[in-house]
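Hello forum,

I keep getting stuck at the same step: I have a sequence, I want structure tokens, and every attempt I make locally crashes halfway through. Rather than fight my setup again tonight, could one of you with a working pipeline run this one for me? It's a single chain of 364 residues.
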Amino acid sequence: MNADRHRIGVFLASPGDVEEERHAFRDLLHELSGRTDYEFTPVGFEDLLASTGPRPQDSINALLDQCDVFLCVFHRRWGQTCADSVGYTAYTEEEFQRALRRFKQTGAPRIMCFFKQVGLSGLADPGEQLAKVLAFRRSLEESRQVTYRVFSSVREFQSQLEAHLLAIARGEEPALPEAARNIHVPIPDQEPEREMSGELALADQAASAARNGHGEEAAALFARLSQTSRNIQVLDAARAFFVAFGNADAAQSLLERKLTLIHDRRLAAREYVSAFMSTRWVDDLAAGIQDEAMAESLRRQLSGERFQEALIQYLAEYFTVGELVTLGRFYSGEGASISAKFGRYMAALPEFLAEMEGDGERGK
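Reply #2:
Ran it on my machine without issues. Output:
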């Protein structure tokens, strides 16, 4: 190792259910050390040959006190209970609070927390361990003292971690906690039936939390609602929230629950048609027609409710719910650009066919 290289000690605290991320962490530090001017050194319990003294955690804390960067990674577990530590429910919590105290006193270590995405059922019924993780995540959102990020895959975790470490190494300020996102979601504006009143009140509470930047609270409330609600508008509101909040798995689970709930292909067909029509292919098709009156007539017919209802009826008769959900996903993603080209292609088709017919006539 080049003695002139700047060494950065990185401590990783985590419970036992993120072993893959721990390996990815060490692999990334090794890779960054090989291609940058910095020597990133992992620091943690793996580096202790043996525990010394009456309390093993004291040896780990000694390493923690020397690190330049402190990281936490959580998924569903909070961590091992520490009976020999007063005031903490897990060793990971003790390590975090120790690092935070030193940071407030000295400006080091730099701290960042990572949370692996949790699905809808986990958010709705977290159990004792996950409930502590979610409560900690919510405390970070409310205090805004520590940067935290949510990831869905090991690759995403490594990408976020790399950006954070390189910013620190270059003397730049790592990204601060994101500003509270004011997410507005539609809530049913109707006179509820008696048995629905409590559910709609909870939905309104969740929407209020989302609007006021309390995303973690809103996520917990919407997740709980999603397990019991049979109100399509409530499920739509929950889905809209999770889309905006960046939890694609939860949003997809809500869509599938919505479709399963009513067992109706027409609803799936309507979801697909809504995504397909939003690509504005009708406007592209009309724009390619020379006759202005014909173009306007076509635009009016294809954009009209009668055409869309007929299309929904046709789709519901010939396609399964799964196929329609797949089409809806497609036209909400890459299919949007394909659909735009489809309109221009259809507009050009009559001219192309006329040319082909003319060539055929001349060849006789």
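The chain has a mean pLDDT of 82. If your local run keeps crashing, start a new thread with the error log.
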